[in-house]
Amino acid sequence: MTIELPGVIAEYFAADKKGNAEAISKCFTQDAVVVDEGNTYTGRDAIRQWMANASTQYNYTVEPFALVKEDGRTVVTSHLVGNFPGSPVDLRYFFVLEGDKIAELEIVP
C-alpha cells in the first residue's frame, strides 16, 4: 500500500532508502533531536553520524504504510526488513515538523 507522505518526510524516507546519511541530515533543522533505540542525537552532525553508522551496520528496507496526526506530531508506521536483530518489525516514526524541516523524530516499536 502506498501512502502520500508530507514533503520532508517523503525526502527522509527516500534518502534512507538510498542510505544517504548526508541527505537525511539535511531534512532536519540545525538543532533537531532524534531518539532511536534509547539513544538521543542532537544536531545535524550527530544525526548524519547516527544514520551513517546504521547504514553501514545493517542492510534493511523500510516501507511506510500508515500515516496519522497525533498531538501535533505526524506518525508514520513502517515495516522494516533486514539483517538486524528482531527483523522484521513495524516501527512508528513520530515526526515534529518546523517549517519545511524535521525538528524532532522519535522511532519506537
From TrEMBL:
Pfam families: SnoaL_2
InterPro entries the record matches: NTF2-like_dom_sf (IPR032710), SnoaL-like (IPR037401)
Domain SnoaL-like: 10-104
Protein name in UniProt: Nuclear transport factor 2 family protein
